Automatic annotation (TrEMBL):
It comes from Orbilia oligospora (Nematode-trapping fungus). Residues 513-522 have a biased composition (Basic residues). InterPro entries: DNA-dir_DNA_pol_X, DNA_pol-X_BS, DNA_pol_B_palm_palm, DNA_pol_lambd_fingers_domain, DNA_pol_lamdba_lyase_dom_sf, DNA_Pol_thumb_sf, DNA_pol_X, DNA_pol_X_beta-like. SMART domains: POLXc. This is DNA polymerase. Belongs to the DNA polymerase type-X family. DNA polymerase that functions in several pathways of DNA repair. Involved in base excision repair (BER) responsible for repair of lesions that give rise to abasic (AP) sites in DNA. Also contributes to DNA double-strand break repair by non-homologous end joining and homologous recombination. Has both template-dependent and template-independent (terminal transferase) DNA polymerase activities. Has also a 5'-deoxyribose-5-phosphate lyase (dRP lyase) activity. Keywords: DNA damage, DNA repair, DNA-directed DNA polymerase, Metal-binding, Nucleotidyltransferase, Nucleus, Transferase. Residues 234-641 form the DNA-directed DNA polymerase X domain. CDD domains: NT_POLXc.
Length: 643
DNA sequence: CGGCAATACG
DNA sequence: CGTA
DNA sequence: GCCG
């Protein structure tokens, strides 16, 4: 009605929850009252928006490139410090629309100031509660459990029911860094130590003559990592670790080709049996050229040795640290990590508090068990999980056989998850094996062993038809995926149920009288159900490592023009399945028409040959048949550690 | 300078 | 398309 | 980033 009551600084209207025309209306209405509304957030002091809380306001400003901290958390802001104010949209409704004369200060929900500049403000502000440690060095399990316990109870309370839990509290461990250093352009690489170009020819030859002889695969420049031995403990582990970090960086920025390139180089160096002492050895390796050579030179000639300019840039970057944090959420990949960052989120708390409803169901589970899923699983626990699943499977399908694949099969002491194959030696059990999936999952859920099902992949041919039977149309080459379930596993709490005892050590969840929380960690478990025909191909496909698998498929494509997958082998030209031959005395991995020729197995007499860890030896036989078909020399899984 | 493993679900 |  |  009248002129403005006070002069206000420049105003910016936050776009939060407004569409373009709504926001434009607000802007013009405010301007009609002779306030100054700017279109660049940098020029504004007051921000008006549909914002509920101060934390959200902070995020909204960060999204606009204004990296402030809450002024109320700062002891004594220096005089003359610029304070950005965020006001509720209600101010607009009252003062602008209704014309009520009200003080904008009554509508401020957030005061933001720019944090003091510091040369170290790139580092994570890791001010979490200090660890309480016993005098003796903790075991791995203790460390993992202790790491977990600090954050767990709080998150758990926040998300007690995973499926539609309302988040409410903060996550302690993963407070993000306080300072934003998102690079708007890629880092400039610091000057590399220049290579000596003045080496005389004689000098180069003298050095070369003292080097160990090159392996045949190097001399022949054999590029496929599936054709050579790659042990778990390579002599150049330190340089490889640096390359792994660069590759992770490429993963995080979705540079898939860069990932492929570094993977090739890593696999090559990992297979090289000598400590690399001369740059000529790098150039000799397939998949390694100028770039890798330059990195190696810098790595070995830096002071102290082992430093890399690119890595130091990456490691001090809040941006990459944050992407890595988000990328480690099961169910989130590089794209989601980048998306979370762009929206202003910097730690798991931000996601829980401001983005929970937007997360997929499996991402919510991934956040809920973030710490436990980072923890590695010792071999003996892998075996006990295998045994439990196998025992239940045999209740439903006598004679079922299992194999642990993944890193475990490659010999790793600690596994990220458990990958388990279940099949049956008798070829005629093909459908029984695939149809085992749902009943087994139901049984394990009932027993409380499976706590969450993340995803189930069932072959389409088992979609029930009204007439009853399965095998709809594509039965002749039924070549869908291998049925599998990805789930969360927890060993039951086996402690005695003594009551009112002093043993209730961890009463962190007070109020839950009587209910003691199961202290066993949640584990990621994948169970696959290959039909007997696909036992060999699935075993090979799931034994890895990743680069070994990629090279195997490329090798088969280039050498045979075949397509290899966990379901088997097809000819690319004809599209027909390439059958796995039947060896004498063996009985699975047959072709379609041979199903009736399977050797009978007495399910009650289990005298089949087994390995030390209890696994059926027949698995290896199936895999050897597959390698033979592909004209590939079979290698121990422990020699497939291509990284 | 094009190509880089292959498959299925949400 | 993104993720495994 | 390396290969054909």
């Amino acid at each position: 009605m009248m002129s403005k009551p006070t002069n206000l600084p420049n105003i910016y209207v936050l776009p939060t929850r407004l569409n373009d025309s709504q926001r434009a209306d607000i802007v013009s209405n405010i301007r009609s009252k002779h306030y100054t509304v700017v279109e660049s957030p940098k020029d504004a002091i007051i921000f008006i928006g549909d914002v509920l809380g101060s934390k959200r306001a902070l995020l909204e400003l960060r999204f606009l490139g204004l990296n402030t901290t809450d002024a109320t958390t700062i002891k004594a802001p220096a005089k003359g410090t610029k304070i950005l104010k965020v006001a509720k949209l209600e101010w607009y409704a009252k003062v602008i629309v209704e014309g009520i004369d009200a003080d904008i200060d009554d509508y401020i929900i957030y005061n933001g100031i720019y944090p003091a500049k510091s040369p170290f403000n790139n580092q994570p502000s890791n001010t979490v509660t200090p660890k309480k440690r016993s005098a003796s060095p903790p075991t791995l399990a203790e460390k993992q459990a202790e790491e977990r316990s600090r954050s767990e109870s709080i998150l758990r309370r926040a998300m007690a029911a995973t499926h539609q839990a309302a988040p409410g509290t903060r996550h302690l461990r993963h407070k993000g860094p306080s300072q934003d250093s998102h690079p708007s352009q890629p880092f400039k690489r610091p000057k590399l130590i220049s290579q000596q170009s003045t080496d005389s020819q004689e000098e180069a030859e003298r050095v070369a003559s003292n080097l160990p002889p090159l392996p045949q695969w190097v001399i022949k420049k054999q590029k496929f990592s599936c054709t050579r031995s790659t042990p778990a403990d390579p002599p150049n582990q330190d340089f490889l670790d640096a390359l792994f970090k660069i590759r992770l960086n490429r993963i995080l920025i979705s540079d898939e080709i860069g990932v492929r390139a570094y993977s090739t180089s890593i696999a090559s160096i990992a297979a090289f049996p000598h400590k690399i002492t001369h740059i000529s050895q790098i150039h000799a390796l397939p998949g390694c050229e100028g770039k890798i050579a330059a990195l190696w030179y810098e790595f070995t000639h830096s002071e102290p040795p082992g430093r890399l300019g690119v890595l130091e840039e990456i490691e001090k970057s809040v941006y990459y640290k944050t992407l890595e944090l988000f990328y480690n959420i099961w169910g989130a990949g590089a794209h989601s990590a980048q998306s979370f960052y762009k929206q202003g989120f910097r730690d798991l708390d931000d996601l829980v508090e401001h983005h929970w409803k937007k997360l997929t169901r499996v991402q919510q589970i991934g956040v809920k068990f973030y710490d436990e899923f980072q923890d590695k699983i010792p071999r003996d626990e892998v075996i006990s999980i295998r045994d439990a699943i196998q025992n239940h499977a045999r209740q439903l399908l006598p004679g079922a056989e299992t194999a642990v694949v993944g890193g475990f099969r490659r010999g790793k002491e600690l596994s990220a998850d458990v990958d388990l194959l279940i099949t049956h030696p008798r070829v005629s059990k093909s459908r029984d094996v695939e149809e085992l999936l749902v009943p087994l999952v139901n049984l394990l859920e009932k027993e409380g062993l499976i706590t969450h099902v993340l995803t189930i992949h069932q072959p389409s041919r088992f979609v029930a038809t009204t007439s009853g039977d399965v095998w709809p149309k594509r039965s002749h080459h039924n070549f869908d995926g291998i049925p599998k379930v990805l789930c969360v596993w927890q060993q039951p709490d086996l402690r005695e149920d003594e009551e009112g005892d002093s043993q209730m050590e961890s009463l962190d969840e007070k109020g839950l009288a009587g209910k003691r929380k199961n202290p066993n960690p949640h584990r990621r478990v994948d169970i696959l159900f290959p039909p007997p025909r696909c036992a060999g191909s699935t075993l090979t496909s799931w034994s890895g490592a990743t680069t070994f698998e990629r090279d195997l498929r490329k090798y088969v494509k280039e050498g045979k023009y075949w397509k290899f997958s966990s379901e088997g082998v097809t000819d690319r030209a004809s599209g027909l399945r390439v059958p796995v031959g039947k060896e004498k005395g063996e009985f699975i991995g047959l072709t379609e028409g041979d199903e009736n020729n399977g050797v009978e197995v007495d399910d009650n007499v289990d005298n089949r040959a087994r390995r030390e860890d209890g696994e059926w030896i027949g698995w290896d036989v199936e895999e050897k048949k597959m390698f033979k078909l592909l004209e590939l020399e079979w290698r121990e899984p422990t020699e497939r550690c291509t990284g």
